[in-house]
Amino acid sequence: MFSKKNDGNEFSNEGKGSSKKIIKFFKSTRILLYWHLFWCVFWQYILTSLF
After folding, report:
1. How many domains does the chain have?
2. Which controlled-vocabulary keywords does the entry list (predicted)?
């Protein structure tokens, strides 16, 4: 019984932590998407100019 209660508490804590991480992830995805698009365009420009 004691181990099961601990597992439940750990899962509830992980659930709260993961929701906060997901919110932070969605906030950071905007910057990452712009950065990714910039690099894609940058590398396409270099490859097309070289070849």
Report:
1. 1
2. Membrane, Transmembrane, Transmembrane helix
